Amino acid sequence: MSLSAKLARFIVDTKYEDLPHDVVEFTKLCILDWLSSAIAGSVKPSVQMVDQLAKELGGFEQATLVTGGRTSVANAALVNGAASHVVELDDIHKGSIIHAATVVVPAALAVAEWMGKSGKDLITAVAVGYDVCFRIGEAVSPSHYYYWHNTATCGTFGSAAAVAKLLELDEKQIVHALGNAGTQAAGLWEFIVDGAMSKQLHTAKAAMNGLLASLLAQKGFTGPSKILEGDRGFFKAMSESYDETRITNGLGERFKITENSFKIHASCRHTHPAVDLIIRAKKEHSLQPSDIRKIHVGGYQSVINITDNPNPQTVYAAKFSLQYCVSLALVKGKAGLPDFTEESLWDPEIRSLIPKVELTLDSAVNDAYPEKWGSVVEIETQDGKRIQLSTEYPKGDPEHPVTADDLVAKFRELAAELSEEQINRYVETVLSLEKVESAADFWKAATLV
Amino acid sequence: MSLSAKLARFIVDTKYEDLPHDVVEFTKLCILDWLSSAIAGSVKPSVQMVDQLAKELGGFEQATLVTGGRTSVANAALVNGAASHVVELDDIHKGSIIHAATVVVPAALAVAEWMGKSGKDLITAVAVGYDVCFRIGEAVSPSHYYYWHNTATCGTFGSAAAVAKLLELDEKQIVHALGNAGTQAAGLWEFIVDGAMSKQLHTAKAAMNGLLASLLAQKGFTGPSKILEGDRGFFKAMSESYDETRITNGLGERFKITENSFKIHASCRHTHPAVDLIIRAKKEHSLQPSDIRKIHVGGYQSVINITDNPNPQTVYAAKFSLQYCVSLALVKGKAGLPDFTEESLWDPEIRSLIPKVELTLDSAVNDAYPEKWGSVVEIETQDGKRIQLSTEYPKGDPEHPVTADDLVAKFRELAAELSEEQINRYVETVLSLEKVESAADFWKAATLV
What we know:
Two copies of one chain form a homodimer.
Chain A: H1 3-13, H2 21-41, H3 45-57, E1 63-64, E2 70-71, H4 73-83, H5 101-114, H6 119-140, H7 150-166, H8 171-182, H9 198-218, H10 234-238, H11 245-248, H12 272-285, E3 292-299, H13 301-307, H14 315-318, H15 322-332, H16 342-345, H17 348-353, E4 357-361, H18 363-368, E5 375-381, E6 386-391, H19 404-414, H20 420-431, H21 444-447
Parallel strand pairs in A: 3-4
Antiparallel strand pairs in A: 1-2, 3-5, 5-6
Helix pairs in contact in A: 1-8, 2-4, 2-6, 2-19, 2-20, 3-4, 4-5, 4-9, 5-6, 5-7, 5-9, 6-7, 7-8, 7-9, 8-9, 12-15
Protein name (chains A, B): 2-methylcitrate dehydratase
GO molecular function (chains A, B): lyase activity
Domain MmgE/PrpD C-terminal (chains A, B): 265-424
């Protein structure tokens, strides 16, 4: 049996009734957290441009856009996939380095709405979608991540898996769907140099491409049977080394969605461990920016590859600048969505701290990655004091968890433009999703005033 | 200036009036040849499935489908991009190993129709699109080709370039469009093992993805400025080695579209040099299948990577089997579209020849590749005669050219289901395309009876 065939069997075999209670509860939190990011992102320029594109092309009114209106499931996956990634507050799985929500949920939700599937069906599809892409991401981590944006590449499989589950494809069809998801997998990190909008295109397209793969498989369209392990398949073409056992270890026994992490800070996850430590140090030592002589941050390799940028030129780029985020956290004591603004980008106090932040590779931290996304920080004050802190996990990781209340609070913050009634309705709908008869009701809150 | 910026300047600067007469004439032949393949492919199952998908999703009636009806430009690029690749008779550029028509023309034609652009605009856009993707394909050849389907990956840039030209994007916008074309580039060869339908998905998606990149750039959506040469860009991520000079050498001076080759045999281009030799040998020596003791074919590495298959199980796979194609040519004296059927796939005479065909790497042939797609053949007859033949170029290459009449004859063969009036109208329209005021008229023949 090929790896795709094993994943296909898992997808077919997984029923809502088999999901442990904590998996169901956790999946709902993932969907709520997704919605926070999608609503907050819906007004951003890059998302508005994708929305314009979808509205320019048109499509049957099958699914709801978080930007407003209804369109085809493909376009809805595209727009909602862009919207939920732009504020950089969406969830992340550290073993696979994947933000699964922004790819899996838009595709699953669009198809569930279109087909009038139940809340239980949606939960099952999302749990399955996360599982598939987490496993694939783990199999190619960390080497794949140097060039490729795992969320986009591996996420495409997750979208296909979730949609395949909702379409009730059989095992053979799912093998084709996964094959054609993998052969569409794309998304290079090169955009990060420019802080370009491509990151939202990646998640948008991953959601849409996986969905297209499964819709095609439903019609009999065939794909490669060994897209993962084949000689010219995904593993060999797109990673230096890979571990096939990650695909099947515990498959159908442990649902990996519960390994997912949630983000509290509005920056790239790789900045979070250091930002957590800075916030803690500021609080414990009542640090003021003027107290600082030097801040040394030791991180793993990806921190350096992705976030070593001492001079971000856009708000977006600032979220990917370790030096900026650390300086911001030292000034403000937090790094939430309202803290990243055009004003704060050029704030002289923050800018004056940036040259004092030094980032280097820490070999112990790096060795523990990607299982642990740690950081070591040493702060040297003007009066010669040295404050040393370290962490193995950023806040929001399963080992350092947030609560459902934390996530509802985050939803309230990110959806602040909505009315109280809408916010309550959304929270209520998602947190009792297993009781929702038709996923079309998911968006009912949007029609309230 | 980045490579993308240089390409962008070339795209902006190229005007119809600057195109040499032979480039205009040749471009029209490329479009006619594209239409042959698109019409012949439009009824094939994989294309019908993509057509069903497009019709399921819907879209504004902006552009015409070769399968019938009108839909959004994105869907039209998708369906027409699938249709024109499936019969394996579309054009090929050997330096870049790209079938440009099936990606560039569907995108350009859809946008030209939508925007009522002139035939001259369409010709210019197609010439520019070919040029861009040929250069990128040459830069990464041959190493990229081991894992990646150049037509899909590099073709995405060609689609974006052609559409950018039609949308009259400025240089900055085109850099973004190329960046987001490259970060969507995908298409792995793994499907070939199964003879799966992914190959049509590749061209369909490349056409659509490039188009989306340019439509987004028009709205201000940004992309990586150095998608080609950047540290985490297309070249480094997706090829073992690359040659940047291929992007700029002669850019704007020599239009590379005239290096394009046309296919007469209905199989993978890599089988053509050997098939040409077999047909010649059969004719010159009046060979019968029963005369054959052994056929030895020496080819370049890609012949072995892509077409070494002594036991094809589908008609489609047979087109990618060197052993099958050589045996078919020996039996029939040709290998046109009507020669690849379910019946011929299992023909005992052809099947009995297959084990007599031996394929090995020929180092001289391999060294000359990809500039020359050559072959050496030695036929050993039952009576001990040895017939040796060799070629450096398959028929249809610029060095071994076909005529406009050959391509009109090919159109007549592939569009045989159409009425004589429709065929004449299509040929007339395309061969005088520079006089067509609105590209919407391109499809007028479809409405005739």
